[in-house]
Amino acid sequence: MVSWRLWVTRLCCGLALLCSALPAMATASITICVENTEFPPFNYFDRNQSVEPRTIGYDIDLLKLAFDQSELSHKVVALPWNRCLKEVKQGTVDAAMSASLNGERRRDYLISTPYYFLTPSYYYLKTDFPKGVQVKHLEQLNDYGSVCGIRNFNYENFGLKPDFHMFQIRNLAHLPEMLTKKRCQFFLARKETLSGTLAINKMDDFYTQLAGISVPDIQPEPFYMLISKNSPHKEAIKQLFDTKVDRLNKEGKLRPLLEHHLQLLRQTR
Q1: So what's the pLDDT on residue 3?
Q2: CATH number of the domain encompassing residue 135
Q3: Each residue's pLDDT tens digit, 1-30
Q4: Dihedral, 64, 67, 70, 71 alpha carbons, nearest 10
Q5: pLDDT score of 163
Q6: Residue 17 placed within a domain
């Protein structure tokens, strides 16, 4: 009888130890990258920090909501966009935020549900075209001048033909020079991100000089999380993220989250 009780006691202790270890065993760490040149209000640097600024934004808050109470712990790293996509494809990084789609990305990554939409637009200096420029197709802009875009950005969802010629600039800081020196007359951008991007780069005065027109007959462009097909956690990442986005959308909480960061950006001006 004594040996039986001792055996039961040892068994219970063993089960208790096993159960206490399960949460640690079930927890895995994932890495998610964002673009290091910033994409406000979705990811940008907190300029209120006295030390090296941390990345904040709609993307960052949404990731916390999706993963903080889950079996996956996560960290966010800011990388050059091409490197971010490459490392996600290889599986050294588990996912990338704020990505539009094209054929290559549909093939190479597991795609989340869309979690926000942007408006493809074209911009020009008001002084160049006082009467404005209205076109039915973006290709018609070539009748008025040259078109600029950011190198490595995806413009497939702007309705452009594959052979459309565009001057590619390295980053937005070069845009004023390109337009004022007439190296190009038009610039392609998503309406909801351009003003914030110029604001955090202290280029508000330049923004007031621009006229912006939504690309005609083009639907708002969806943006996604791209998940590595080589991540051992790919299915869990997609399930947790998609479920949280769907729930927040139904509860009407996504728009207030976005408005919060738009308000923070307005305060940087």
Answers
A1: 52
A2: 3.40.190.10
A3: 445 454 434 434 444 444 444 344 347 999
A4: -130
A5: 86
A6: no
As for how many domains the chain has, the answer is 2
How far is 117 from 195, CA to CA, in rounded Å? 16
Whether residue 8 is contained in a domain is answered as no
Place of tokens 């068994």: 11
What token pair was written down for 257?
Answer: 């989250």
pLDDT digit string (tens) for 36-86? 888 899 999 887 765 667 899 999 999 999 999 999 999 999 999 999 999
> Which residue in this structure is represented by tokens 């998610």?
32
| In the block, residue with structure tokens 């090296």 | 52
135 three-state secondary structure: coil
Instruction: Clarify whether residues 99 and 53 are in a common domain.
Output: yes
Count the Cβ atoms, other than its own, within 10 Å of residue 132. Answer: 9
Residues 66, 89, single domain; the answer is yes
Predicted TM-score (pTM) of the model is 0.83
Encoding tokens for residue 269? 């001006």
> 158 with 198, same domain?
yes
> How far apart are alpha carbons 264 and 267 in whole angstroms?
5
Domain, as residue range, for 192: 120-214
pLDDT higher than threshold 60 for residue 183 = yes
Asked whether residue 105 is domain-assigned, the answer is yes
| Distance in angstroms (rounded) separating the CA atoms of residues 86 and 92 | 9
**Do 124 and 208 belong to one domain?**
yes
